[in-house]
Amino acid sequence: MLIIFPRIILTLFSICDIIHIVMLNTDKNGDCMSKQNTNITVTSLLKKFPKANRGDLIPILQCVQEAEKFLSKNAMMEIGDFLKLPLSKVYGVATFYNQFKFHPPGKYQIQICRGTACHVEGSSTILAALISDLKINTGETTPDGLFSLEVVACIGACGLAPVMSINGEFFAKLTTEKIKHIIQDFRDKEASNE
Ligand code: FES
User: Fold this and answer.
1) From ligand 1's centre to the CA of 166, what distance in Å?
2) Domain end marker among 46, 66, 101
């Protein structure tokens, strides 16, 4: 009994801590995520973080990106003003993480896998072919807004390596020749829709 009683007290404290943390997060972050797909502005999103401080920079960046699909310079400036952080600091943190994008995504979002299996099977050659064909670097979008290119970690289809996905559709066992055809097919599809 002497041993069990302190454990019960500790458990109660832990439960209270968890409830407290959940309440704090809910209060700070509001219902940011539930407002997607509506006509919202960065200003209105920031109002959902009434008690935010500098430590909330990443959740705010995530929230704005989720709503706007990327982080524009204006959004970054507004976030910096809101948190009283210099723009260089906001960019410094955001550019550290792969998850943040600074260009609007293309209509077709290409994700090339650079996981181990894909790397062994030559994904760097595939990436080079994509860069050459699209004439953009990773993290960028073609000037016509059609394609954006990003490198991702294993996408869970190692048996298909090297693999990429375009808007969630997988393209397997890629070669530089296949890349040309796939990209051309998308271009043709767009041209026939015009
Ligand atoms: S390493 Fe590319 S899908 Fe797993």
Assistant:
1) 15
2) 101
